[in-house]
Amino acid sequence: MSSSTAPAAQANSGSWSAFLKSIASFNGDLSSLTAPPFILSSQSLTEFSAYWATHPPVLTAPAVESDPAKRTMLVLKWFLSTLKHQYASRSEQFGNEKKPLNPFLGELFLGTWSDEAGETTLVSEQVSHHPPATAYCIRNDKTGIELEGYNAQKATFKSTIIVKQIGHAVLRVPLPSGEIESYLITLPGLHIEGLIFGAPFVELDGSSHITSSSGFTAKIDYSGKGWL
Q1: Into which family does the record put it (predicted)?
Q2: d(CA 86, CA 222)
Q3: What is the CATH number of the domain that holds 212?
């Protein structure tokens, strides 16, 4: 380590230790705490809604399937395909999970994807500041498939950071008959590992449920490797 980087590393280590002490002694929602600069992300929470549409062809595939059981499997396939981007992509990109920027009330994030699935658009808005909550709508013009939902988080400390995700998503799939089939999707719980080593990462826990208006359900159980 060069002489110029050593003081910065020591300062980061000291800031991280102080941050961990403040977490351990804090009562309430940890999202209101100020994190040290080196752990802050350049991403806003409103941008996270785009992870739902990482693979538009997979998102829209249920709209062209006539069998309800196979449609449910395709919805499950799409949901599973979003998990890595939602919860692991930032650790892979930056080396560890970083705290996203808190959006201001009314902040908008817009997105458009154009590929073989047609044009898929996203509107994501910060609809509440205290507590923070983000609402979003993703729509594919070619198939008419639409995803709407909202997400809020409450973080507490119990030997590690526990994040309760509040909210859900509803996927609406237009059928050839003219009916709209809907899927209610719940969100997993989260906890943050790697705090002691200064390299936090997200692990999923609990369960997610996907419930179709046609009567089919799917349950996804999560378990992490822990800190060992």
Answers
A1: Belongs to the OSBP family.
A2: 14
A3: 1.10.287.2720
- Strand, coil or helix: 208: strand
- Three-class SS state of 8: helix
Closest to 73 (Cα-Cα) out of 220, 223, 225: 220
What pLDDT tens digit does each residue of the chain (228 aa) get? 444 444 445 556 667 677 777 776 666 666 666 666 667 788 999 999 999 999 999 999 999 999 999 999 999 999 999 999 999 887 777 678 888 888 999 999 999 999 999 999 999 999 998 888 999 999 999 999 999 999 998 888 877 888 899 999 999 999 988 899 999 999 999 988 887 777 788 999 999 999 999 999 999 999 876 544
DSSP-derived pairing of the beta strands 99-101 and 40-44: parallel
On whether residue 228 sits in a domain, the answer given is no
Q: What whole-number distance in Å separates Cα of residue 55 and Cα of residue 65?
A: 17
Write down the pTM of the prediction. Answer: 0.84
Cβ neighbours for 103, distance < 8 A, ≥ 6 positions apart: 44, 45, 46, 126, 132, 134
Q: Is residue 227 part of a domain?
A: no
Q: Does residue 108 fall inside a structural domain?
A: yes
